[in-house]
Amino acid sequence: MLEKIKTEIPGLYILKPKVFSDSRGLFVKIFHNCFFDDLGLRTDFVEEYFSTSAKGVVRGLHFQTPPYQHVKCIICLKGAIFDVVVDLRKNSPTFGKHLTINLKADEPKILYIPEGLAHGFMSLEDDTIFLNKTTTVFDAECDAGIHWNSCGIEWPDIPIILSEKDKNMVSFNNFDSPFK
C-alpha cells in the first residue's frame, strides 16, 4: 500500500501511498503500522500536528537536538508546498546537502525524514495545510534551526513571509551540528 522511494540522502524516503479515487474524491491511507514496519521504517510516532499557511510563508529550517531528536513524517493535505531537507549529520556522505520536492495535496506523497536532518517548507498556495508526525514530543530547550536561506537552496520566486524566529536562525556555516 506504500511505495518506498530512496533519495540521495541516506534514510530520507519519499513514500507514495495508494490513492483510491472516484466521483466522491480521494481516499488515501497515510499511516499503517504494518506497512511502515514492512518497509523497515519507524512506527513509534508520539506527536502529530498540522499548520495552515498563506502563500509565501516559509517555515524552517527546523529540527530538535539530542536527546529529543526525531524522525518526521510529513504530508501536504491541502494546497502545495516546496519542501526542503538539509542533512546535518557530520558523518553522512551528504552532510550539508539538501533535497527539495514539491508536495501537493492532489498528488499525495509522504516524506519520511530521519533524525539529524533540518526540515522546512514554503507554502505555494493560500490556505495550505501541512501535517507533521514525529517520534518525540516538542521540547522547547531542544527546538533549533538553521537560517532558511543559508544552504544554497533555490527557493521559488514569490514574496516570502517569515516569523521573527526564522529570520534570526544561525546560518548553516556558523552551525555546530550535534548530529553524528
From TrEMBL:
Keywords: Isomerase. It comes from the Bacteria. It catalyses: dTDP-4-dehydro-6-deoxy-alpha-D-glucose = dTDP-4-dehydro-beta-L-rhamnose. Signal peptide: none annotated. InterPro entries: RmlC-like (IPR000888), RmlC-like_jellyroll (IPR014710), RmlC_Cupin_sf (IPR011051). GO terms for cellular component: cytosol. Coiled coil: none annotated. GO terms for biological process: dTDP-rhamnose biosynthetic process; polysaccharide biosynthetic process. GO terms for molecular function: dTDP-4-dehydrorhamnose 3,5-epimerase activity. It holds the Pfam family dTDP_sugar_isom. It is an enzyme of class 5 (isomerase). The record marks F138 as: Participates in a stacking interaction with the thymidine ring of dTDP-4-oxo-6-deoxyglucose. Belongs to the dTDP-4-dehydrorhamnose 3,5-epimerase family. Catalyzes the epimerization of the C3' and C5'positions of dTDP-6-deoxy-D-xylo-4-hexulose, forming dTDP-6-deoxy-L-lyxo-4-hexulose. NCBIfam families: rmlC. Homodimer. This is dTDP-4-dehydrorhamnose 3,5-epimerase.
